[in-house]
Amino acid sequence: MNLPFWVRRAHKWIGLVIGVQALLWMVSGLYMTAISLEVIHGDHLAHVFDGPLDQVSERLDIEQLAKIRPGFESMKLKKFLGKEVYELRAGGKATLVDARTGNVLSPLAREQIVARAKDIYQGEAEIREVTWITQAPQEVAKRPVPMWAVRFDDRSNTTLYFSPDTGDLLARRHDLWRWFDFLWMFHIMDYDTRDDVNNNLLRVAAGTGLVFALSGAWLVFYSFRRRAQP
């Protein structure tokens, strides 16, 4: 059996099969290391800071809140658009209530979401589009719907996604993030959900790449050993 011949042939064909994926691994890996995660996360585009709560303020007590939202399971006092509000949760559903008047604010109207987006957006661009979303696009596939999408007319095509119940910023998306997500799909070879790093296709490709590397190392060792022989 001519072992070097078969190792060379296997190495060549494995290289043809795995070469494209290896190139995608390197290109995607280079992109991921060249751009910091802080930029990818978009913290520079939208920053949430509602300020401290008022030290002295007349607020509704628990008994009064129970009349507005009977059976609520948890509560959180926070600021929203400059006013104090309670976030009441019951059965997985959140409701915003004005902490002073008791007025129910949820679901938030388009004008309130626009004001919220302008408040936390760190750029200078104007809002291009505001969309009510009932079916989440790929870039926010795991976020709960419905939600509001506010798109800004900037170079990054920034989109901010908000909860209509709490006004919380659910996600920041921009072109650098979208490229990251696109390359991540190729990097982990999950072309469906883009989050499964333990899929069988990746296992096969990684195993094949290992065989390619080991066969190449063996050929290098064999070549030097053969030259060293008199």
Please give a structural write-up.
The model has no long low-confidence stretch (mean pLDDT 89). Helix 1 (3-34) packs across helix 6. The chain has two domains: 3-38 and 180-228, no CATH class; 43-173, no CATH class. With 230 residues, the protein is α+β, with helices and mostly antiparallel strands. The chain has helices at residues 3-34, 37-41, 62-68, 110-120, 175-188, 200-228; strands spanning 74-80, 83-90, 93-98, 127-133, 147-152, 159-162, 169-173.
Termini Cα gap: 23 Å
Question: What sort of overall outline do the alpha carbons produce when their principal axes are compared?
Answer: elongated
Determine the structural class based on helices, strands and strand pairing: alpha+beta
Strand order of the largest sheet: 4-5-6-7
User: How many distinct helices?
Assistant: 6
Instruction: Provide the residue-averaged pLDDT.
Output: 89
Order of helices and strands: HHHEEEHEEEEHH
Number of strands: 7
**Low-pLDDT ranges:** none
Instruction: Please summarize the sheet with the most strands.
Output: 4 strands, antiparallel
Number of domains: 2
Gyration radius, to the nearest Å?
A: 27 Å
Strand content: 15-25%
Helical fraction: 40-55%
Q: Which helices and strands, and how do they pair?
A:
Elements: H1 3-34, H2 37-41, H3 62-68, E1 74-80, E2 83-90, E3 93-98, H4 110-120, E4 127-133, E5 147-152, E6 159-162, E7 169-173, H5 175-188, H6 200-228
Antiparallel strand pairs: 1-2, 2-3, 4-5, 5-6, 6-7
Helix pairs in contact: 1-5, 1-6
